Amino acid sequence: MTSFLGGIGMAGMVALATIAQSPRTPLPDQPVEIPVETPEQRSSLWQWIEQSHAAAVRAKKPLRFSQKTAQYFSPHKRYVAQATLYLTAHPEAHRQQLLSVLEITDRQTGTHQRFDSLKEVPREFLADIPSKEGLIAALVPLGWSQTEDRLLVRQISGLFATDLISDSAWIWQAGVGHVATVYPTADEYDFATLLGWSTTHPQRVLFQTQVMGNPKVTIWAVDTQGSTQLAQGDRPRLYGTILPATASAQR
Predict the structure, then answer these.
(1) 34, 67, 180, 250: which could form a disulfide with 224 (CB 3.0–4.6 Å)?
(2) How far apart are CA 53 and CA 59, in angstroms?
(3) 12 has pLDDT over 60
(4) b/e map of 20-43 (b: 16 or more CB within 10 Å)?
């Protein structure tokens, strides 16, 4: 695929979307399981970024856009998480920027936490981008654990107009806050896509990795310490309910 994003459209950017889906009806007292998104469903944000870039090209100047993700409610609806994506579209693709703010609310106590995605980017990564132009650094909710106490968030880091982009698993725990950021460490790959919680080991998260130009994918299970194991037979799971995203807006 050739686009203003370079190679990241092939595997990385499809991981950005947050499409609301209709969960299946649960049994009594059983947490609702959210269907894992397909690449087609994930592509809406890709289209939003493409359209925003096209608008900036027509305007011959930078334009700023924002878009909220769906609201992700924990299985018993005590917690809700939502992110707002902020896109600076620029006629020159390599100067664009995508950031987000993740908000998590305890609906029982009214406690509200706010996380700026830029502050969660590793310093060593930012050191190579002093102007922050071209930066992709977004936190996007993916789903809750079955026990309701952990939120799995996709942390996407990369650069526009390059092949550099990948997912990390940013994990939030009730009563603690951000507890871990992990990614597969057992093999070399170009792209990692966060899929969900492991079915076999619910405390671990599943990633799909791929080498550019090779259609083969590998599934890994990663714990909160970063320990990585092959998990080809495992399946991702996500829990909670979601309400649709709001329309995007120009700022």
Answers:
(1) 180
(2) 10
(3) no
(4) beebeeeeeeebbbbebbeeeebb
- At 248 the pLDDT is 62
E strands within the chain?
33-34, 63-68, 71-73, 79-89, 97-106, 112-116, 135-144, 150-159, 165-173, 177-182, 191-198, 205-210, 217-222, 228-230, 236-239, 241-243, 249-250
60/56 Cα distance (integer angstroms): 6
> 75 in helix, strand or coil?
coil
From the CB of residue 206, how many other CB atoms can be counted at a distance below 10 Å?
Answer: 26
Q: What is the largest CA-CA distance in the chain?
A: 56
Contact between residue 54 and residue 240 where contact means Cβ atoms under 8 Å apart: no
| Cβ neighbours around 210 below 10 Å, total | 18
Q: Are 140 and 100 contacting, i.e. CB atoms less than 8 angstroms apart?
A: yes
Q: Are strands 97-106 and 135-144 parallel, antiparallel or unpaired?
A: parallel
Are 118 and 99 within 8 A, CB to CB? yes
Tell me which of 235 and 130 has the higher pLDDT.
Answer: 235
From the list 15, 13, 10, 33, the residue with the least C-alpha distance to 143 is 33
pTM: 0.86
Which pLDDT value is given to residue 49? 93
Contact 148, 108 (CB under 8 A): no
Pairing of strands 135-144, 150-159: antiparallel
Inter-residue contact 172 to 123 (CB < 8 Å) = no
